[in-house]
Amino acid sequence: MSKKIFALVMSLILVFSLVACSKGGDGKKTGDKGKLVVYSPNTENIMKTIIPMFEKKTGIKVEVISAGTGELLSKIEAEKGNPLGDVLFGGSKSTIREKKDLFEQYVSPNDKDMLPDHKNVDGFLTPYTADGSVILVNTELIGDIKIEGYADLLNPKLKGKIASADASNSSSAFAQLTNQLLAMGGDYENETGWKFVEQLLKNIDGKILNSSSAVHKGVADGEYAVGLTYEDPSAAYVRDGAPVKVIYPKEGTVYLDAGVEVIKGAKNMENAKKFVDFVISKEAQDAFGSQLTNRALRKDAKTGDYMTPLDKIKTIKEDEEYVKKNRENIIKKYTNILVKTRG
């Protein structure tokens, strides 16, 4: 073989080796140091606040794929072995925990700064915000009726003036239901709690709405004096000057965490870990707590004036495993009571 041909052959081998290395040993692209693909069910407000902050801080360009949590989990499962996304940002802790095989084990060094009950205890799921069940009151309609907790909602003067969504098809209404059972009965099977639910449904008097958004909107717009809803939109109305007040039930409020996770085999693995670190950094948690209307979970996070400090709220803890296993039974019992109260 001539020297010229030998040199040509070696050059071709070098070129093919570089191409193979750029794709990884299995032929898959290994990732772009300046890129991150984020799958998220989060609201536009969250994404427009947190993503630009991360991009500015790191120089990493983020591509966002938005869809519901269930749809995104199905997508991640379908892409198993060759993931197109790097991070799942959002979705309830109880839902994500069922899919742990889809995510990398990763505990951020910032996890040590999170509140005791909101740390990464699963190894892959990092809680970053929580939402709680609240009572939203229209201050122009409520008059002299005192509302400090769930028990006050049984006041006959409120009959037909309380709005609620259907716990059988609204996640926030279901969270309200399990919160009531814990707060008023001590657990999910105690008949004292279920008796309260029955009395409350009677006082609601058929004001069961089709969506959770119709509840808080109805209270803010003056259609209802009281609504059983959740903290995020309620705090937003307060921040924006609506004639409403957020009541945290004195019997106790359940907070349910949302999580951020690194997708197993992520092509932009290091950038994905940086994103998790950032979401629970002081900078991002301050934004959640003082710019947005989400409940920050970092111990030293700032809280906006429109948000009640967490240490001023009586909280109670949901038994996530029980609720997951008994969800259908809880809904069935609720539905039977609802039909009975309408009968």
From TrEMBL:
It comes from the Bacteria. CDD domains: PBP2_BitB. It comes from Helcococcus ovis. GO terms for cellular component: outer membrane-bounded periplasmic space. One of its GO terms (biological process) is thiamine transport. The lineage of its organism: Bacteria, Bacillati, Bacillota, Tissierellia, Tissierellales. InterPro entries: Ferric-bd (IPR026045). Residues 1-22 form the signal peptide. GO terms for molecular function: thiamine binding; thiamine pyrophosphate binding. The keyword Signal applies. This is Extracellular solute-binding protein. Keywords: Signal.
